[in-house]
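Researcher: Re-running this chain for the archive, since the previous output was lost when a drive failed. Same request as before.
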Amino acid sequence: MFNGLVARRPTAGSRLDGVALTISPIEPTWIVKTLEIDGATVHQIPMLKLIPNIPVADVERSVEFYRQLLGFDLLAVRGRGDVTRAHLKRGDVEIIFRSLDVYAPLPYLDPALENQLMLHIQVNDIVDLYHRIKDEVRVVRSLEPTLFGSAEFMIRDVDGRVLVFSQATGSTAPSATEAGRGSGTIDAG
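Model: Regenerated structure tokens:
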């Protein structure tokens, strides 16, 4: 159990509450290769990627939104019983949509934006993407620079899920004029 956030990169031999770490540097990040917990060594298998598997009310409608508006390719559609799954990909970004009971509450529709599931997608030309889709979608937050050296905007997909598009910009974040952002207000609903 960690007693707080680790604000620095761990080094080989670091100890965090009785856990010894063996680090393998992989730029720009790091992977924990082994853990020593109470004297026992646990070898770690590197994780390669995360593909979200997300429940949607209408798989076909979600697939069409991501294909037509965002340019995703449909890799496969499979089903068993009442459950259909669709696997989509664009570049290194993959997502799976699965059908759910239409009467089940959707967990990502919490009224407070900060409590909602958000999918972050990094892109190379955020200004072009923003101007291409902003009139076709419900914009939650207009394109604007962030405090973290990037520019981002948020939209809702056809199921109401928040998609955050971001691009690392360093110190050259798009200006308000270039981004075409209005007030920068947030629409949580």
